[in-house]
Amino acid sequence: MASESEPPRIGPGFRRQLCLTGQLRNAYPVGSHDVQIVIDAGAATVEGLCDAASSIFEGDPACRRVVFAPDTDDVDSIEVAERAGFRMVVEVDLPGATVKILVCEPQWVTDGYVDLNSVPC
Fold first, then answer.
1. Which of 39, 81, 110, 116 is 20 to 30 A from 12, comparing alpha carbons?
2. Among positive and negative, which fits the CA dihedral 49, 74, 17, 28?
3. CB-count exposure of residue 65 (10 Å: 0-12, 13-18, 19+)
4. Mean pLDDT, the chain, as a whole number?
């Protein structure tokens, strides 16, 4: 059972944290349903990240963004996340760490992408 300070588990080695209440709340323009995946040391796998993201999207159809924020020097986890379909968005400084924010978005969000360079005036 997770303590109040530990986000709930969504699989072996994976926990979920609502971005609005977690360490990323002031790091980027957080959506009300954005969820961060927090991974135990050494637990990052392509299959695990894919399963965790799918579980989050299935559990909350309003979730627009699943976020993974490894330390900038954790190249192994960054590579795993990119292979799992996450894309790097921004590097941010948090108290005590610099992280890369990688996101995974559901198809309904990416289908709605608008090229800002082609918006009619």
1. 110
2. negative
3. buried
4. 86
Tokens of 47: 């299959």
pLDDT, average across residues 79-86: 95
User: What would the two tokens of residue 72 be?
Assistant: 């900038």
| Residue indicated by tokens 């954005």 | 34
pLDDT at residue 56 tops 70: yes
Beta bridge partners of 88: 102
Half-sphere exposure of 121 (CA within 13 A, CB side): 0
**Residue ranges per domain, the chain?**
9-118
pTM of the prediction? 0.81
Tell me which DSSP letter residue 7 carries.
P
* Burial tier of 61 (Cβ tally within 10 Å: 0-12, 13-18, 19+): exposed
